Model the fold of this input.
Amino acid sequence: MIAKREGGDRVLLAAVMAALLAAAAWPGAVHGGDAPALAAGGATDRAEDARRLRELGDEHASRDRPAEAVRAYQAAVAADPSLGPEIAPSLGAQLLWADRTTEALPVLEAAVARNPADRETRKLLALAYRWSDRLDEAERLSRETLAENPGDLEERNGLALALLWQGRNRLAAAEFDRVLAARPDDAEALLGLSRARMELDLPEEAEGPAARAVAIDPKNREAAEQLARVRRRLRRYIEGEVRASYDTDHLSLYDLSLGVHGRAARGFDLGLVGRERIFRQGSPGKDVNIDQVDSANGTAGSLLFAYRPGASSAIRGSAGLSSYDVGNFHPWTGSAGVTLFPGDLWRIALDWERSHYDTILSLQDQVTLDTVSAGITWWIPWKTEVSASAALLFQHNENDVGQARENSGERFELGLSRRLYLKGDVTRLTGLARLSYLGFREDLGVGAYNPLRQTAEEVGLDGRWAFRPRWEAFGTAMGGAQQEKGGGGSPTYSLEAGVDREVGADGRITVGGFIADSSAAGREAGYRRHGGYLRFRVPF
Done:
């Protein structure tokens, strides 16, 4: 997110306030510390004290000393309350520059209510609304100002920021482009345009504006960070992971993967991933379940691709093959999908995927699954996301044990996420709620996970915290209930947490752990899996 203190707004508004108020020097004034004590005397003396305090506030404001200016203005109003309406715009501005936005809001709101035609104060209030995350109100005020003065480029930047922070990236990019058409070297508009294009996953189009912003203002830390973020997205990298888990069915699973990912051409991503999976079964019933085989290894490889031709659509797909050293099981996998973005706040996804039960609890689970799904997501500007999806599932039984060869089912999901806290580009906390239904026509009877009917309800929190430079902590906690085959509800929970560490130039190491527990009726005594992982990324 663009920093809270918008440099262009502050410089312009400070200059305007200084020009309007024409701070006059007060002989003997103290340029720091508390406001001078009021002289004892009658109404005339107090009015004179109030005038001098106001002049002192104006001088502090012209010298960019907001804390001292606030104290002087507040003392002036205390000495002569009738000055309150007149001083309010100046006091509100200095409260903003002193990072006291909560106090500035009512002062500026009252000033605008008294004089709606005061364009400069209205711009200050729009800025305060942006900093207070009241983005729809900020957008409304900015549009009012631009309707009166379309050539106000600072306010058009402000409108673009309000749109960007709401997630309305295409509209924001259009406003930044309008600013740059009139003022090509506007570093704030260049940075905002880069961010908007990056949010649209168009990093090639985001790199140029960010690089130009850095060239114009080499000391701009935000511009430098944005340029680094864009170039990190464009770089090829190697990613590996080692994951281990153990569950109450006495299955130990070790997963080792290594992939190479790169952006081979404009908007086109390619990846090649290899995976080795090692199963170790310790169940007391293993002699029956797996014909006296207590371990198995699986090797898999897959090719991934994604193509983003523009802001309105994206295409993705994969193809892979797996091979296990028992059961003569060599399933192929694949996926294909398209995502459409009819507007900034809508996403429609259509997908097909073929997968197999590669986390099987019984090594006879030679079942593949085709899933055809459609989903829609709606963002209520910036804070809330609502998603719904429906899928048809087709299971194919490859076990030679006499069960049905085909089975079909359906899955429905509804999700809600609400941003609860945000600070900077990383630190955030989001509330989650999920409802789901999963059902199949019949049970294959080979151990594959296919309940005849299952519903689940979950709520939880997801967060990430930048607790020190180059270090981030993350976690997701969910809890709820699950019902199977019409049985009563039973509790479920899951937790994943870990830390990320940036290493070198764009490298990253992640260490995490997880646990999931369900005691639903269809799982008899319940099911729990816990484990951990180590992940690394190395750019090249």
Observations:
- Confidence is low (pLDDT under 50) at residues 1-5, 7-40, 520-524.
- The longest strand covers residues 406-423.
- The chain has 13 helices and 16 strands.
- The first helix runs from residue 7 to 21.
